[in-house]
Inverse folding.
C-alpha cells in the first residue's frame, strides 16, 4: 500500500455564512490527475485555495479539519510559503506578471534564491518546454508576456509554476477563457506532466475531466457527492445526483 | 412654461462651459500678469547672482538654491516615510481601531493649516531638538506637511495593483514581503511618484512652515551646511513685497514668476511621468 500524496480529513470551510465545504474526506495518490467537477458555487475554488493555503489571505475564511501533504499537516506542521512552493496553482484567468516572458518564468526561482544566469536560462527553457510553449516563444523571450495570446499566457502560467519545481499543481478552471485549440494544448501539457506531478484539475467542462482525469470528484453545494475512477464515474455513477448533473439536468 | 429637451440641454451645456471658463480665468490672468511684469526682470544675472543693496538690486540665486535644498530635503525624508507607511497600511495592517486611528490621523494631518506646521516645526525641531533655524528644521517641517499627500496617493497606487498579481506571486511560494518588493511596488511606483511630486510641489511654495524654521530675511551667500539658515523663494517674495521699501516691482514679479515656474515644472514632471507610464501600462 502506497501512502497517498494528499489526504483531506473532515475538511469544512465557511466564509461566515453557509458552509462552502462540508465534511470532505478523500485522498489523492502520487502522480494522479484528479478532475473536480460541479456546478458554480459548489466549493471547488475554496477547496483548491485550501490546498495551497491561499485561503489564509481571506480574513473571513474559516477552516476546520486537516489536509496532509506527504503525511504532514499543511496548516500545523508547515509554513504557508513551503506549502505554496510545493503545491502551486494555475488560476482561471491567465495572470502573466507585467514583465518579460523570461522574467515571468524566472520569477519564482529568482525569489527562491537562484541567481546564476546559466541556471536560470536552463530552468526557463526546461519549464517552457514542459509547458508546451517553448517553440512558440523561444525567439522572443525578452518581449512582454502581456502580448501573448490567452492560451499562450495560460501555458506560460503553467510553465511558471513548473519552474519552482512543485510536487502538486492545482488548476482552477484553467481553460474557461480559452478557445478549443488552446484548450487542447493546455490539456496536452497537463497529460504530459503526469509522469512527474500530482495534479488536481477543477473544470466546468465535464468532458475535459473525462479526457484528462484518472479519477474524478463531483462536488455539489459544498459536499463531495462522489469520487471514483473516471471511467466508472462517467459510465456508471453511483449517486443519482451525479447522474443528474452528467446528463445535464442541473448546473 | 415648459422647455423643449434640446433647449434644456443647451442651457445645461452653456452653464457647464461657463463654470469651466470661470475656473480658467484666474489662472490665466495670474499667469499673464506675472509674465508681463516679471519676464523683463528675468535674466541670467537675476537667476545666478546674490541680492545686493538690501535686496533692491542683484539676483535671487540664494533663494532659488534654498528652495531647491528644502524641496530635496523634504522629499528625501517624506517619500520613504510616506511610502513605508502606505505599505504598512495597505498590505499589513489589520482592520482594527489602531489602523483606523492612523488613517484618521493622516486625514487630519492634511487639514492642518500650514502656519500650525510652522509653529510645530519651531517647537519640535528648532527648539526641542536644538536644530536652530536651519535647513534641517525647515525640510523636516515641510516633510511632515507632505506626508498626508504622499501617504494617500501611495495607498491608492498600491491598492490599484490587481490582487491577482499578488496571488500569482504568493501561489508560487514567494513570501509576502518579496511579493510586495518585486511585484506590487514596481507596479505602484508611477502612481506613488506622481502623487508625491504633486504633494511636494504644493509645499514648495508655502511660506508659513519655513517662516519660523529656516527662512533667512537677507542672507547674500549660500548655506554652508544643513544646519545653516537659508533664503527661500516664497519668503523672499513676501519680504520683497511687504518688508522692504522702494523695491522695483519688476523684482517682485520676477521672483514670483520664478517660484511659479518651479512649481509648474514639478507638476509638469509629474504629468510626464504619468503619461509615460500610462502609455506603457500593460494591464
Ligand atoms: N472570498 C469569499 N468570501 C465569501 N464567500 C465566498 C468567498 N469565496 C467563495 N465564497 C462562497 O463560497 C461558496 C463556494 O464558492 P467557490 O469555492 O468559489 O465555488 P466554485 O469554485 O465551485 O464556484 C459560494 O457560495 C461562494 O459564495
Ligand atoms: Mg470557482
Amino acid at each position: 500500500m502506497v501512502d497517498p500524496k494528499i489526504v483531506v480529513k473532515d475538511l469544512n470551510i465557511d466564509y461566515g455564512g453557509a458552509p462552502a465545504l462540508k465534511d470532505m474526506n478523500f485522498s489523492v495518490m502520487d502522480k494522479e490527475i484528479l478532475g473536480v467537477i460541479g456546478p458554480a458555487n459548489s466549493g471547488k475554488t475554496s477547496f483548491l485555495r485550501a490546498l495551497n493555503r491561499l485561503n489564509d489571505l481571506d480574513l473571513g475564511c474559516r477552516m476546520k479539519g486537516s489536509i496532509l501533504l506527504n503525511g504532514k499537516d499543511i496548516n500545523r506542521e508547515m509554513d504557508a510559503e513551503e506549502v505554496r512552493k510545493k503545491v502551486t496553482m494555475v488560476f482561471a484567468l491567465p495572470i502573466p506578471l507585467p514583465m518579460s516572458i523570461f522574467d515571468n518564468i524566472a520569477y519564482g526561482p529568482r525569489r527562491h534564491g537562484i541567481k546564476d544566469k546559466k541556471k536560470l536560462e536552463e530552468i526557463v527553457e526546461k519549464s517552457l518546454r514542459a509547458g508546451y510553449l517553448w517553440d512558440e516563444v523561444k525567439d522572443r523571450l525578452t518581449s512582454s508576456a502581456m502580448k501573448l495570446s490567452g492560451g499562450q499566457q495560460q501555458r506560460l502560467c503553467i510553465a511558471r509554476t513548473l519552474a519552482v519545481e512543485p510536487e502538486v499543481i492545482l488548476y482552477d478552471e484553467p481553460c474557461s477563457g480559452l478557445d478549443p485549440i488552446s484548450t487542447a494544448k493546455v490539456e496536452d501539457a497537463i497529460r504530459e506532466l503526469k509522469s512527474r506531478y500530482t495534479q488536481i484539475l477543477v473544470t466546468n467542462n465535464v468532458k475535459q475531466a473525462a479526457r484528462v482525469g484518472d479519477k474524478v470528484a463531483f462536488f455539489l453545494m459544498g459536499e463531495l457527492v462522489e469520487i471514483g475512477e473516471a471511467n466508472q464515474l462517467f459510465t456508471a455513477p453511483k449517486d443519482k445526483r451525479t447522474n443528474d448533473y452528467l446528463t445535464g439536468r442541473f448546473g | 412654461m415648459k422647455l423643449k429637451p434640446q433647449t434644456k440641454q443647451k442651457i445645461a451645456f452653456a452653464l457647464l462651459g461657463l463654470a469651466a471658463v470661470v475656473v480658467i480665468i484666474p489662472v490665466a490672468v495670474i499667469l499673464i500678469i506675472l509674465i508681463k511684469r516679471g519676464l523683463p526682470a528675468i535674466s541670467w544675472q537675476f537667476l545666478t547672482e546674490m541680492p545686493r543693496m538690501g535686496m533692491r538690486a542683484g539676483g535671487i540665486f540664494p533663494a532659488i538654491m534654498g528652495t531647491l535644498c528644502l524641496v530635496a530635503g523634504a522629499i528625501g525624508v517624506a517619500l520613504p516615510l510616506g511610502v513605508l507607511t502606505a505599505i504598512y497600511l495597505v498590505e499589513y495592517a489589520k482592520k482594527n481601531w489602531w489602523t483606523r486611528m492612523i488613517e484618521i490621523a493622516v486625514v487630519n494631518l492634511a487639514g492642518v493649516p500650514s502656519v500650525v506646521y510652522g509653529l510645530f516645526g519651531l517647537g519640535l525641531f528648532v527648539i526641542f531638538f536644538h536644530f536652530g533655524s536651519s535647513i534641517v528644521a525647515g525640510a523636516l517641517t515641510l516633510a511632515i506637511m507632505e506626508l498626508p499627500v504622499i501617504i494617500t496617493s501611495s495607498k491608492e497606487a498600491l491598492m490599484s495593483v490587481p490582487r491577482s498579481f499578488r496571488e500569482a506571486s504568493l501561489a508560487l511560494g514567494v513570501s509576502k514581503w518579496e511579493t510586495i518588493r518585486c511585484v506590487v511596488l514596481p507596479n505602484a511606483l508611477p502612481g506613488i511618484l506622481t502623487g508625491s511630486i504633486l504633494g511636494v510641489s504644493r509645499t514648495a511654495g508655502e511660506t508659513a512652515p519655513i517662516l519660523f524654521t529656516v527662512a533667512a530675511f537677507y542672507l547674500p551667500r549660500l548655506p554652508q551646511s544643513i544646519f545653516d539658515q537659508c533664503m527661500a523663494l516664497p519668503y523672499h517674495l513676501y519680504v520683497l513685497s511687504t518688508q522692504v521699501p522702494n523695491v522695483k516691482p519688476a523684482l517682485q514679479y520676477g521672483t514670483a514668476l520664478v517660484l511659479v515656474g518651479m512649481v509648474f515644472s514639478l507638476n509638469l514632471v509629474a504629468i510626464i511621468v504619468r503619461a509615460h507610464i500610462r502609455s506603457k501600462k500593460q494591464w
In short: Residues 6-246 of chain A form a domain with the Rossmann fold fold (CATH 3.40.50.300). The two ends of chain A are 37 Å apart (CA to CA).
